[in-house]
Amino acid sequence: MILINLLPHREAARKRRREMFFVSLGISALVGGLVAGGIYGWYASEIATQQARNEQLRGEIRRLDGQIKDIASLQKEIAALRARQKAVEDLQADRNMPVHLLNELVRQLPDGIYIASVKQDNQTVTIAGVAQSNERVSELLRNLGNNSPWLTKPELVEIVAGNSPLGPRDQRRVANFNIKVRVLRASEVSPPAAGASAPAAATAAKS
User: Are the C-beta atoms of residues 179 and 156 closer than 8 Å to each other?
Assistant: First the structure.
């Protein structure tokens, strides 16, 4: 018996291929959706984790900012305490400053010079006096600038020629001078000089 297929087998095969294509396309779309969903979930998890870390870091930054403010406040308090301490030390050192000043003036004053007045403004001392000659004034300036550990930066403000009466008819030419010099605090003087002048200062203070 001979069987003859009269159905359009080509159309049927084409239909089966089309159905298989759509099935494979659906499966691919499903797999692609699952993969995309997995990747999206992984990225979402990583973003959430990073956001949690960022929030933790912001919390730590806020805590450190508070500590920095506390440290800055403590530094201001320390600076204020140091300023007060320095002020107290300067006041204690300034108590002996007139003693050192008078002691050094006696040591450095050359012959032929007479001091008329001494005025002190903080660490600046103005000395006015009379000298037998300009050379005596120059010698005094050299002594104050080079030989005294407590006096520094002598400056001749003024020198004026004048006359000093020696008798009813005799007069002598003199030089009226005005000098400024800076007297140092104990903290500014080298230790050997300060140590050497301490006994003299104590003796002068007792007297």
Answer: yes
CA pair distance 34, 36, nearest whole angstrom: 6
Burial class (CB in 10 A: 0-12, 13-18, 19+), 60: exposed
Q: Could you please report the per-residue DSSP string of 18-68? A: HHHHHHHHHHHHHHHHHHHHHHHHHHHHHHHHHHHHHHHHHHHHHHHHHHH
How many other C-beta atoms can be found within 10 angstroms of the C-beta atom of residue 23? 10
What residues contact 151, with CB distance under 8 A and at least 6 apart? 101, 104, 108, 125, 144, 145, 181, 182, 183, 184
- Whole-angstrom distance, CA of residue 142 vs CA of residue 149: 13
Q: Which residue do the tokens 């007045």 mark?
A: 117
Residue 158 above 70 pLDDT? Answer: yes
Q: pTM for the whole thing? A: 0.48
